[in-house]
Design a protein that fits this description.
5-stranded parallel sheet, flat, alpha+beta, single chain
Length: 879
C-alpha cells in the first residue's frame, strides 16, 4: 500500500481527496491543513509521496516543496492546485516537483489521474534510488585514488579499478592471461608466495609492503591490506586495497644518497665551512675550518666557542657588521678578516656568509678560504709599486709640467678662436632675440632677431645708444627692474614674460630668460627673448571660452561631473552635484569614485564604463549611487567621451530618480497587493467549487432517484459556469499591470496550438508592435474563435498592409463567418456560445496602447478581423 500525505488548507477538499484515493484500497492517505504543521513532525519521512496545494496561509506549496527537498530529500512531490499560471508550473518543476495537476473538471477523472501520477512518481523514485546507489558504488570504486583488485583462489584477476590499470599499465584484455604472481616484482615474489595462502585461509596478515611490476617492467612500490571472502568455509575471492608509495620510496632513497654526498663533500672540501648562530657561536665546522684556526679537535668547539674569539681585534668590527647584514637578509658578498689561530699565529681569510635555517633556528653558513700567502704577497707588491711610482713621479714632474703649460696655452688660444666663431654664428642666426645689457638696461649687444622683435631692421644702430626700458610697456617696467636686480644678485635663468611697445608702436608680448655674465671685463646680463604675442592672445581667448563653459557647467540645474578617462579621477563637479550628494568640491576633485565609494554596485559601474568604451555615449542608464551620508540613491547617467587639450574625459549628467522610482515601486506594490487579494479570493472560491463538484459526484453514486439526479445535474451545470467566470478573472487581473513592450508579431503566432486539419499562413516577419505583454493571448483567442465557431475552417491567413500612417494587421479564415448583427456584439463581455469572454479580452488588451480591432468579414465566406496599429506603436525591423 502506498502512503500519501495530502496538504491543503481546505478540510473539505482533504476529505474528498481521501475518499476518492482510498476507494481503490491501494492508498492510505494522511492529511494536514498546514504545510508548516506538516514540517513540524518527523512523520513526513514515513510517507511514500506528498500531495500539496499551492496557495496556503503561512507557507505556499513552492516553499513547502523547497523545505521538503532541503530536509527530507527526494520524496515524490505532486503540486495539486487551482493555480494554472505558467510561472507557477515552471517554478514547481524547477524546484523539483515530480508532477503538476490542476484542480477542476470531473472529480472522478481528476482523482484517477492524480492516483496514476502518484504511482508513477513513487515507482520512478524507487528505480532512481536503486540506480543511483549502484552507480555511486561503482563510481566510488572506479575513481578511488587507491589501487583496488579482486583475485580468485587460483590467483586470477576478477576485478581491478581504473587507478590500478593506470598505475600498472595493464588493460582489460591483459587481465585474462595474468595471475597475481605475474605482476609481483622478483624482490617481493617469495614474500607474496608465503602471504597469499594465509590470506586465502582467512588470516589477517596486517599491512602488506610489496613491489608490483608494471607492464613496462617498472617497479611500483605499494602498501595496503587484503582479505578473503569465505562462504560456507570455502574461499571465494580476495579483495585488496593498495596505495602507490613509489614516489615516497624514491624520495627517501634519494634523500639518503644526497645526505651522504653532502656530508662527504662538506667534510673533505679544501675550503673551510662553518655554521654559526646569529651571535657567532660555532654550531658546525669541517676539517678545513679546523686547520685554518689550528684546532685539531675542532668538533669539541661545537656549541661552546664563538668565532669572534679567533678574529683579530682590528677585524672584529667588520665581522659584527657582516653578521648584522646577513641577519637582515643582505648576504652573498665577499669579506676579508685577520684570524688569530689557537697558537696565536696571524692568518688572513676570505669568507662569504649566507642566512640559513639550521635545526629549525636561524643561522649563518660561512665559507672560508686561507689567503694568508696571497695577502702577504699583495702587501709586498703594493709597497714596491709605491716606491717605484714615487721615483718615476719625481723624475718626470718637471718635464711634464713644462710640456703641459705649453700645450695648454696653445689649446686655449685655438679653443678661444673656435668658440668665438661658433658663438657669433649661433647668436647672429638664432631665431630667438639675444641682447647683452648692463644692469641699467643699456644695450651692449643685439642680434638680428632681437631687432626684428621690436621692429628695428638696423639692429646694430641700437648698440650703445638705446636702453631696453624704452621698449618696455609701463605696466611691465616694475617687473623688469625687479628682475634686473635679481640677476645682478646672481638669481638668474628663470622664465619671465613682459609686454613691449615696438618701434612701430605695436603692443607685443615676449618671454625672456636672463643670465649674469662678464662682458668686456664688466658684469652684464645676457637676455634671450621670444615673441609669444599670438600664443598669449590664443591663451586669453581659450581662458574666456573656458570661463563661459565653467559658468554654464557650474550653473546647470542638472548635476554634472568631468572625470579623467585615463585614471578615473574627478576633474570638476558643478554646484548641483554638490547639493545632491552633500560632498564639497575639495572632497571630490582629485579622487576617484572608488575611493569615495560613490557607486554602490561595482558591476553596474563596470558595465557603464564598458558601454561607454564601446559606444562613446550612453543615455539614461540606471545606476545606484551612494551620497556622502551613505544613503543609496537611484540615478540616471547620461555620459559622453570628450577630448580637451588632447586628453580624453568623461562628461556626465546625473539625474536623481530615487523619488520617482519609489513612487513607481509603491504603485507596483499596490497593484501586487490587489492582485494577491484577488488571487486568494479566487483560490478560495475555486476550492469551494471543487468541494461542491466532488460531493455532487459522491451524491450521484449514492442516489438512484432520477429527480435528485436531475437536480444534481443542474447544480453541477451552474457550478461549472461559476467556475468559468472565476477562471476568467485569473487572466484579466494581469491586464495592464506590466509595462508595454516591443514584440515581434511573428513570435506570438499560436502555431503550436493549430489543429492538424487547419493550415496557418502568417506573413508578418520583421514587424514589431508596442503592446501589453499579453499580446500573445490576442492571437490565441483569435485562433480559438476560428476553431470553435468557424465550423469548417481549413485555412487561416495573417497579413499586413499600410493604411495612411497606420498599419493594419488582418486575421482571416475560410469558415462560416459572423452575422452582420453580431460583428460588434462579439466584443461584448458575456456574448457568445462558450464563456463569452475571449473576444472581449482581445479588445481590452489591444486598447491599452491605442490599437483597435473590428470584424469586417462577409457572412458565409469567413471571418476577417482588422487590427489597426497607429503610427509610433509599430516599427519595421526587416523582412
Amino acid at each position: 500500500m502506498i502512503s500519501v500525505l495530502y496538504v491543503d488548507d481546505e478540510p473539505d477538499l482533504l476529505d474528498i481527496g481521501r475518499i476518492f484515493l482510498e476507494e481503490s484500497g491501494e492508498f492510505r492517505v494522511g492529511t494536514s491543513t498546514s504545510a508548516l504543521e506538516a514540517l513540524d513532525t518527523s512523520s513526513v519521512l514515513l510517507y511514500d509521496a506528498i500531495i500539496s496545494d499551492y496557495q496556503m496561509p503561512g507557507m505556499d506549496g513552492i516553499a513547502f516543496l523547497k523545505a521538503v527537498r532541503e530536509r527530507f530529500g527526494n520524496i515524490p512531490f505532486i503540486l495539486f492546485t487551482g493555480r494554472g499560471r505558467e510561472e507557477v508550473v515552471i517554478d514547481a518543476i524547477n524546484n523539483g516537483a515530480d508532477f503538476y495537476v490542476q484542480k477542476g473538471g470531473d472529480p472522478q477523472a481528476q482523482f484517477a489521474d492524480l492516483a496514476h501520477m502518484i504511482r508513477q512518481a513513487v515507482k520512478m523514485r524507487q528505480v532512481q534510488a536503486y540506480i543511483a546507489e549502484q552507480e555511486q558504488r561503482y563510481h566510488d570504486v572506479q575513481n578511488a585514488n587507491d589501487l583496488i583488485q579482486s583475485v580468485d583462489p587460483a590467483g586470477h584477476f576478477l576485478f581491478v579499478n581504473k587507478k590500478w590499470q593506470d598505475t600498472l599499465g595493464y588493460g582489460e584484455h591483459d587481465l585474462e592471461n595474468l595471475t597475481i604472481f605475474d605482476i609481483i616484482d622478483d624482490e617481493s615474489k617469495e614474500y607474496c608466495k608465503n602471504v597469499f595462502p594465509r590470506v586465502i585461509a582467512g588470516e589477517n596478515v596486517g599491512i602488506i609492503d610489496v613491489v608490483f611490476k608494471a607492464r613496462n617492467g617498472k617497479k611500483v612500490f605499494v602498501e595496503g591490506m587484503t582479505n578473503c571472502k569465505i562462504t560456507d568455509g570455502k574461499p571465494q575471492y580476495t579483495r585488496g586495497i593498495f596505495k602507490d608509495v613509489t614516489d615516497r620510496k624514491i624520495a627517501e632513497s634519494a634523500l639518503r644518497e644526497s645526505e651522504e654526498k653532502f656530508r662527504t663533500l662538506v667534510e673533505y672540501t679544501l675550503d673551510g665551512i662553518l655554521i654559526l648562530d646569529p651571535m657567532g657561536k660555532i654550531l658546525f665546522a669541517n676539517q678545513a675550518a679546523g686547520r685554518l684556526i689550528g684546532a685539531e679537535n675542532y668538533h669539541e668547539m661545537f656549541g661552546i666557542r664563538n668565532v669572534l674569539e679567533f678574529i683579530a681585534p682590528e677585524s672584529q668590527g667588520d665581522a659584527v657588521r657582516d653578521f648584522t647584514q646577513v641577519a637582515k637578509g643582505i648576504d652573498g658578498y665577499l669579506s676579508r678578516y685577520k684570524v688569530i689561530t689557537t697558537t696565536d699565529q696571524e692568518r688572513w681569510a676570505e669568507s662569504i656568509g649566507k642566512s640559513i635555517r639550521f635545526g629549525d633556528a636561524p643561522a649563518i653558513l660561512v665559507s672560508l678560504r686561507d689567503i694568508t700567502d696571497r695577502q702577504r704577497a699583495e702587501e709586498e707588491l703594493i709597497k714596491k709599486n709605491e716606491d717605484l711610482h714615487a721615483a718615476y713621479e719625481e723624475l718626470t714632474a718637471t718635464e711634464e709640467e713644462l710640456r703641459e703649460n705649453y700645450d695648454e696655452l696653445s689649446n686655449h688660444e685655438r679653443a678661444l678662436r673656435a668658440s668665438e666663431e661658433k658663438f657669433r654664428a649661433l647668436v647672429e642666426h638664432s631665431l630667438d632675440g639675444i641682447l647683452i645689457t648692463d644692469f641699467t638696461g643699456n644695450i651692449l649687444f643685439a642680434n638680428r632677431s632681437a631687432g626684428l622683435v621690436v621692429d628695428i631692421e638696423d639692429y646694430l644702430a641700437v648698440i650703445g645708444k638705446r636702453n631696453v626700458m624704452e621698449f618696455v610697456a609701463p605696466e611691465s617696467q616694475a617687473e623688469v627692474l625687479r628682475d634686473f636686480s635679481k640677476v645682478a644678485q646672481g638669481t638668474d635663468a628663470y622664465l619671465v614674460k613682459y609686454k613691449l611697445i615696438t618701434e612701430k608702436k605695436r603692443e607685443i608680448w615676449v618671454e625672456c630668460i636672463g643670465k649674469k655674465i662678464t662682458f668686456g671685463d664688466s658684469a652684464a646680463m645676457l637676455v634671450s627673448l621670444r615673441d609669444v604675442t599670438e600664443r598669449t592672445r590664443a591663451e586669453a581667448a581659450l581662458r574666456e571660452s573656458e570661463n563661459k563653459f565653467a559658468t554654464v557647467f557650474r550653473s546647470s540645474p542638472v548635476a554634472l561631473t568631468l572625470v579623467s578617462a585615463t585614471d578615473g579621477t574627478f576633474v570638476d563637479i558643478n554646484d548641483s552635484f554638490i547639493r545632491s550628494t552633500g560632498y564639497s568640491h575639495e572632497e571630490v576633485v582629485g579622487k576617484t569614485s572608488e575611493i569615495l565609494g560613490i557607486f554602490a554596485d561595482k558591476n553596474e559601474y563596470e558595465r557603464l564604463i564598458s558601454l561607454l568604451r564601446d559606444h562613446r555615449t550612453i543615455n539614461g542608464m540606471e545606476v545606484k549611487c551612494r551620497i556622502k551620508t551613505g544613503e543609496i540613491r537611484t540615478c540616471l547617467f547620461s555620459s559622453s567621451l570628450i577630448v580637451m587639450d588632447g586628453k580624453i574625459y568623461i562628461l556626465s549628467s546625473v539625474e536623481d530618480a530615487t523619488e520617482r522610482k519609489r513612487s513607481e515601486h509603491a504603485l507596483r506594490l499596490a497593484n501586487r497587493q490587489l492582485n494577491l487579494l484577488t488571487g486568494i479570493t479566487r483560490h478560495d472560491i475555486l476550492n469551494k467549487i471543487s468541494i461542491i463538484l466532488g460531493f455532487i459526484k459522491v451524491a450521484e453514486k449514492k442516489s438512484s432517484d432520477p429527480a435528485v439526479g436531475e437536480y444534481l445535474m443542474k447544480i453541477k451545470s451552474t457550478t461549472t459556469a461559476i467556475r468559468s467566470q472565476i477562471e476568467f478573472t485569473r487572466v484579466y487581473q494581469d491586464l495592464g499591470t506590466n509595462q508595454p513592450q516591443w514584440t515581434g508579431l511573428d513570435t506570438v503566432m499560436p502555431r503550436t496550438h493549430v489543429p492538424a486539419t487547419i493550415a496557418l499562413n502568417a506573413d508578418v516577419q520583421g514587424i514589431e508592435v508596442f503592446a501589453d505583454p499579453m499580446l500573445e493571448k490576442v492571437f490565441f483567442n483569435l485562433l480559438d474563435n476560428s476553431v470553435r465557431h468557424g465550423q469548417r475552417v481549413t485555412d487561416i491567413r495573417v497579413t499586413s498592409h499600410h493604411s495612411g500612417e497606420d498599419l493594419v494587421v488582418v486575421w482571416e479564415d475560410n469558415g462560416i463567418g459572423i452575422a452582420a448583427e453580431e460583428k460588434e456584439r462579439i466584443f461584448e463581455r458575456g456574448f457568445g456560445k462558450n464563456t463569452g469572454l475571449g473576444m472581449f479580452l482581445v479588445r481590452e488588451i489591444l486598447s491599452l496602447t491605442g490599437i483597435t480591432i473590428v470584424e469586417t468579414g462577409e457572412p458565409g465566406r469567413g471571418t476577417r478581423f482588422e487590427i489597426r496599429v497607429p503610427a509610433g506603436v509599430y516599427r519595421i525591423t526587416g523582412t
